[in-house]
Amino acid sequence: MAKTPQILRPHPEQTYAKELAALAKLDKDKKPVGWQLSPKRVVDYLMGGEVAKGVKISPKYIGDRRLMEVAVATLTTNRALLLAGVPGTAKTWVSEHLAAAISGNSTLLVQGTAGLSEDALRYGWNYAQLISKGPSESALVPSPVMTGMQRGSIVRIEELTRIPSEVQDSLITVLSEKTLPVPELSTEVQAIPGFNLIATANERDRGVNELSTALRRRFNTVVLPSPSSLAEELRIVRERSSLGDRSAILETSSAVEEIERLITIFRELRNGVTEDGSTKVQQPGAGLSTAEAISVVENAVSLAAHFGDGIPQVKDYLPSLRGAVIRDEERDGAVWRSYVEGVLKERPGKWRDWYMALTEFGAGKGDGG
Known about the structure:
globular, five-stranded parallel sheet, disordered C terminus, 13% strand
């Protein structure tokens, strides 16, 4: 019997199927029509914790519970949900888990791009059938939006502000009338209960394709902030690092200390000031999001596993750290060197290891080789 191939990135409803089933079994609250869980249990699923004796739920979102309550409450109304924020604030992650908990399916997805056509939001055609038989239901190719309306499911639209404005506005009728006209067939698709939209928007994309007033007022916007504290960001990085059987490495005290230093560097360069507020810091052009910190950690652990003794050292963080900070060699390289010489050099203890390693690595000069 052939082995079932391992899935590289399972959907949340697959990875957390046991948690979702446990919450459904406990759920005694009223569920909106078409929902798998009640709003309260959806928030419990996102925030994690012990929801009943012996039933522990892993946290999916680390931050303010009230934000998740507002997001879930929005989806019980006729308004769609827009998750906004700078890169790396878990917008996509939250939208996936909301769809998984509410509809049991996070796969109805439209990925926003500058070249997206209206067909991706409405419907397309099987052109072979269209040419041979003309417009017909069998020739119609439904978009994820149309499918979600027919099934009564949550539909996700990623990077809404990357989509051209005229294409965005094709959603207005869907959101206001809960109807998708199909004039070629003289018919329409009407949404059934359970249908709604969750869109994400990168605040750094403002001015690319701003939402029209008509479209924006059909969304309730929830802004997901960057982690408020070093401890919160450290927890997110440790929770979200997808390292499989190597994840235990991140629990060692030495690994936690080094990751904390890495995150301190990210936060100081991102915020333009040292964590203690004593020194202003030049900011590079890169956003230095929490997601990028997670990537640096994962790469360091992989380097140590395959080319070291298994425990990541300072040197293992540096190649990816440099790549995250320096996007423009001339501008960001100068900012990076100023930070290393003006801030890290003055720090005592284990910070000396970082400074010495960065100096040997080149502190942003050349390729570090």
